[in-house]
Amino acid sequence: KFMRDKLAIEKEKIVVMGHSIGSFPSVHIAEHKSSIAGLILVSPIASGKMYTNDKVNDYKGIDLFNNSRKIKKVKCPLLLIHGKGDKDISYDHSVTLLKNAKCHKFRWFPLNANHKNIYDKYRMNYIKKVNKFLDFCSTSIQNRRNSKNSISSIISESEQSSNKSFGNRIRRIDSEDDIGENMEERKINIRDSDEDE
């Protein structure tokens, strides 16, 4: 609200990012503000109950923070970053969120990162992958705006684009810097690879 009302930033240009317990308010915002540009979750928790069950067998309490349920309603693009060596919150939490999300989703699970060292250990890859995700979000915003055009302007744009190369190709979010050949590239995940080590 502060960004929109006081800083005059369009909500379609806002990306929400949450780490660990910060994934709860982040998913909540993304669930209720469908027009935001994107959601980035770093070492997120799928649900309070799943987290507690990791620590205590057969926890019977109320699941107050159920991200795995809420993520189903998120419409904006999603990037999940989680270290496979995370002993505080297992990366299984991100796998659960990945399975439940219905939006365009991307993941990066660096092999030897833990709960607190992803940015420090993989700084350049971290920045690179987040930047590529932001590029994708920017393209998604343009696509959303274009979809609101009248049918005649859409036909006009398609005729123009057939005569020149695609200016808004979707960037692949992986270890290379190449550009996807078609819109299906949106489904490509950020890959785990040895070069991330």
Q: How does this structure look, described?
A:
By secondary structure, the protein is of the alpha/beta class. 38% of the residues lie in helices and 9% in strands. Strands 1-2-3-4 form a four-stranded parallel sheet, sandwiched between helices. Strand 3, helix 5 and strand 4 form a beta-alpha-beta unit. The longest helix has 25 residues, at 123-147. The protein is globular.
Summarize the structure.
The protein is α/β, with parallel strands linked by helices and 197 residues long.
Q: What's the arrangement of secondary structure elements?
A:
Elements: H1 2-5, E1 15-19, H2 23-32, E2 38-42, H3 48-55, H4 67-70, E3 78-81, H5 92-100, E4 105-108, H6 118-121, H7 123-147, H8 151-161
Parallel strand pairs: 1-2, 2-3, 3-4
Features:
single chain, 197 residues, alpha/beta, 4-stranded parallel β-sheet, 8 helices, 9% strand, disordered C terminus
Average predicted confidence as pLDDT: 78
Q: pLDDT below 50 for ≥5 consecutive residues: which ranges?
A: 158-189, 192-197
Backbone structural class: alpha/beta
Q: How much β-strand is present in the residues?
A: 5-15%
The run of helices and strands is HEHEHHEHEHHH
Largest sheet: 4 strands, parallel
Q: How much is the radius of gyration in Å?
A: 18 Å
Shape category: globular
What's the helix count? 8
The total beta strand count reads 4
| CA distance, first residue to last residue | 39 Å
Percent helix range: 25-40%
* Strand order, sheet with most strands: 1-2-3-4
